[in-house]
Amino acid sequence: MATQTTVDWLYEHLFLRLTHEQQKQFEGLFHQAKDTEREHIIQAANLPIEQRQVRAEFKNIGEQYYSDTYTLNSRETIDALDSSPNP
Fold first, then answer.
1. Number of domain units in the chain
2. Which domain range does residue 10 map to?
3. Which of 47, 52, 66, 71 has the smallest C-beta neighbourhood within 10 Å, fewest atoms?
């Protein structure tokens, strides 16, 4: 199982307490927050690489780190919430 991001945790705990209408409104904000968080994580993982000369195959290590660590959990969270009954 992948590591849960802060945004995933908030989504998971807040989503179940919202009405269906609120869930629809919140969905777009969640995706914006996920995109921002993803970029921050990738930038943080790439920072040491950008500060020195390295071989080209290591340039995307931040993207790979995010994908390996967080992507599976995000998909599991969304799938689980999609299949849960709405209040």
1. 1
2. 6-83
3. 52
Judge whether 16 lies within some domain: yes
pLDDT of residue 4: 86
CA distance 19 to 15: 8
pLDDT for 32 equals 93
User: Average pLDDT by consecutive 10-residue portion of the chain (87 residues)?
Assistant: 83 88 89 91 73 62 79 59 56
* Residue from 39, 46, 49, 47 nearest 70 by CA: 39
Reported for 28-35, long-range contacts at CB under 8 A and 24+ positions apart, including other chains, are 33/7, 34/5, 34/7, 34/8, 34/74
Residue at 34 is within a domain: yes
**For residue 1, is it within any domain?**
no
Residue 48 in domain:
yes
